[in-house]
Structure prediction request, 667 residues.
Amino acid sequence: MAMPSRTTSAPAGRGDFGRRPLAYAGKELKVFFRDSQALFFSLALPLVLVVLMVATFGGQTRFNTDAYVVNLDRGGAAGAELVTRLTAVPELTVETLSEEEATQRLADANIYNVVFIPEDFTAKLTSGETPRLVIRQRGMGNTEGQIVNSFAAGLATEIATEYLVSRRVGQTLAAMGRPLPQADVDAKVGSLFETAKADPPVRVEEQAVGARSDPVAIFLPGIFTMFTLFAVSLGSVAMVEERKKGTMERLMTTRLTRVELLAGTWLGSAGRGAVQVVFLFGLAWAAFRIFTPVSFFSIVVVALVGVLSISAVGLIIAAISRTPDQANWTGVFLAMIMSLLGGSFFDVTAAKGVLGVASRLTYNFWANDALRRLIVKGETLASPGVGRDLLVLAGIAAAGWLVALLLFRMRGDAK
Amino acid sequence: MSEEPFVVVKNLRKAFNGTVAVDGVSLSIEKGEIFGLLGPNGAGKTTTIRMMATTLPITSGDVIVAGHSVHDNAPAVRRHLGVCPQELALYPELSALDNLMFFGQMGGQRKAEAREQALRNLELVGLIERARDRVSKFSGGMKRRVNLAIALMAKPDLLFLDEPTVGVDPQSRNHVFTTIEGLRDGGMTVLYTTHYMEEADRLCARVGIMDAGRIVALDTPRNLKAKLGDPDHFSLEDVFLKLTGRRLRDVG
Prediction:
């Protein structure tokens, strides 16, 4: 008589589908968090990158540059006033140099622009002559230098106007037979200019039409996409290591199906990537203050879609690799190619021809585009461009899953 | 009408790229029996177990477990199995409890059920006090006991133990023996492979000796010894060496 079979048990892989992939992903994350070496490198790398960015960009996202001034108008009120007003400009850090020092540093290409206030600056203003303001620069100077030049020219004109008005008022009063000491005229005219500055006749209103295009905002998406690629590479290695250390063989004797195993690996890999990118963006937020809570939320949403997308590509690596080394090197190769073509190192959005086509075949291109739209252009999740990018990322995820399902064999067969 | 054996292996064969690793193995194991599968390195024991455990496709033949064919209905067979592989198939970064719970959940248990079962199993293998310690901090013997406890998570009625005492100290080995005997007394069927003949002699009701992919002898340890003469004067190792020869087997 045949032994009775345990027909009361639920068919394998059905009924409780969903719990096993989540439990598998949970195990992956537990292993990740308890592997101090992996954790250190995963979280230390974002930290190092943010520290490097802070060191490079000074931890600030608004324009700031150094202005070099040589004031030869020693004892002159107008020259001193020009230096004071330049120093008061929040975007400028003014450094006063001697003439010799400035000449030497320009010669050494140590600096590119210097504002020279001539020794007769105040004298000429007082006498009604037109004073000179000399800008010495190497070639065309640089962009920051041009801005400093504009500030210097504008402030010098402002001071000259004040001197001119004051002198004309004094002359007019004298012509009317009501002469006043020039010092009194200067004081009165000065106070009128101060009042005018406090309540200017024309108000300039700044309207934000997008986030600022600062270097951090431009580099951050590319760094993020590269990170997710490395995280996925680690995920693929983890799955191949299951085979190496024998746990895969043991899993084969459980009810875990290959679809569940792929789903668990996918979620685990995405979870690991998500931890990294949230950490990276969180650090960037803390260091550079470039996000609002809403933009941070949008960026995290795109980042999560991104890691889910590239994690599906990681499943293909896991499916075709037989050793951890194979998975590792395939992952590194893929990361470098995708980063290069996808715009992590340079902007490829306007690329045409072969590069244009090739770049659009990478995950990085679409993830970078979505993040730059959010961070640099100030778009939202509802923007058509961001929506299109998210759809393409979802398509990459679906394609990754499909290929992985075709290639991955858990038990050497399709069961 | 007599009951069919709990496990029936029928003319099992496995070839890898033309090389035959298992060549027509047939055997049966009764419910509640500890059956020893012995053989030198490369004899085909592990390949046989892997096919029986549904992890390696069968070239030809079949294995029937509790009336289910591995060939036709592997998922139904898996619901009866617990496998303790030769390697330490566990996650050293996780605690003993987490390891057991994870495999319990992969076997279809809910989290709370898996936790309850894991604690019972850790009690059984004498590791309840170290349940929350990382496995990486365990001794070799303790890891072997965790390996065994994981195999019991699915509450199997057929347990495959592939050399479960390799590298284990006498105390841990004795604990493993006691555990296996307790499981057998509870009605569990066990397929046991080992290179330690005294283990097979102590634990197994019957043993099959494999060589070059074939079963070359199958009987109780006492009957096998009796074939050499007085069973009280011969050991199972004598039988083993007589049947498989004394030349060294180096298998990569």
Summary: Chain A has two domains: 21-58+214-407, 65-198.
